[in-house]
Write a structure and sequence with these properties.
With about 325 residues, the chain is mainly α. The protein contains 11 helices and 5 strands; from the N terminus they run E-H-E-E-E-H-H-H-H-H-H-H-H-E-H-H. Strand 3 and strand 4 form a beta hairpin.
């Protein structure tokens, strides 16, 4: 029996199995289709085989990153959540997924990555607190710049700037998209009846972060909560397919997760304090050497007296679990 494909995703929070929309789309589809993936929830995209998240490493050692490519691969492996859809339903599904990408995704990018207070108080803080040192100092800013470029591409506007006018336009498009989704869902459990499909995975992946995050500027959340059927839709998927929320890192019935090494279980705050102390000590010793305050022999003696069990950052790189 072939080894299962390995899925790398951002870890979860806010009662979600992942904080990232694309990761949520893939996780939900894999659950809907019953795909037996080996799941690694991580907080360092550089440990992903593609350098980004999500990433699927197949048992043929191929790496896929886009949710659409991962879903196509799973379908080829006979894990097809759209198997029972009619031709018309398949066409409707593609149309609504395009609508999400065009109308809702730009508003999501703006709400989490561009809107100043949301970005500083929630997004940047979350990634800085969960990423390992020293990536947490520069990677969130780089991710924000990438998201701004993605928004400019989606909008077809190279000179796009954050502001009230842009926010109003983006949030208006997003509200229109949510209204159309709400009308299409109606009183059904899922968009095409009693079984979830790829459209349900895409809608869940885009709406769940809006519903569960605690952004200071919560205009999108307010509108979503006014649409009871969409709110219940997200809540029901979490209860049915992710009964233990993403914060406890539990494996689901179709996933298996490796155990992290001992160093991965040190609380984030304690690890950061420890590493910060090492950096500060190194800086002080360098300064002392440069100014002649201490001799080389003295520094060597201090190095000999250092605790023998210190481990370098990344020593458990292949074993990091879900934090």
């Amino acid at each position: 029996m072939a080894a299962p494909d390995e899925l790398f995703c951002w870890e979860g929070d806010w009662g979600l199995p992942s904080v990232n929309t694309d990761c949520l789309v893939v996780l939900a589809y894999a659950q809907f289709a019953g795909a037996p993936l080996k799941l690694r929830k991580i907080s360092n995209p550089w440990r992903s085989p593609s350098g980004s998240l999500p990433a699927l490493r197949t048992n043929q050692k191929e790496t896929l990153s886009r949710p659409s490519d991962i879903i196509i691969h799973l379908r080829k492996q006979k894990f097809n959540a759209d198997y029972d859809l009619s031709a018309k339903e398949g066409a409707d599904s593609l149309a609504f997924i395009s609508l999400l990408e065009e109308k809702l995704k730009p508003a999501l990018i703006y709400a989490f990555w561009i809107e100043p207070k949301n970005y500083v108080d929630v997004t940047r803080r979350w990634y800085a607190e969960h990423m390992p040192f020293p990536l947490n100092f520069f990677l969130p800013g780089r991710m924000q710049r990438n998201q701004l470029e993605k928004l400019r591409l989606l909008r077809g506007n190279e000179s796009l700037e954050a502001g009230e006018e842009l926010e109003k336009e983006l949030y208006s498009d997003a509200a229109e998209c949510m209204n159309l989704l709400s009308q299409r869902l109606g009183s059904q459990k899922f968009f095409f009846g009693d079984s979830p499909s790829s459209l349900d995975a895409y809608v869940f992946g885009h709406l769940a972060p809006i519903l569960k995050s605690k952004l200071p500027n919560g205009k999108l959340q307010q509108h979503l909560k006014s649409l009871d059927n969409l709110t219940n839709f997200c809540t029901n998927i979490l209860l049915l397919y992710f009964p233990r929320d993403g914060r406890d890192g539990s494996s689901q019935k179709t996933f298996s997760q490796p155990e992290g090494g001992d160093f991965d279980h040190v609380p984030n705050k304690r690890r950061k304090q420890f590493l910060s102390a090492l950096v500060a000590l190194g800086a002080m010793l360098s300064y002392a050497l440069l100014t002649g305050m201490v001799s080389i022999q003295h520094v060597q003696q201090e190095a000999l007296e250092a605790p023998p069990d210190l481990e370098p950052i990344g020593s458990h790189e292949e074993e990091e679990g879900d934090g």
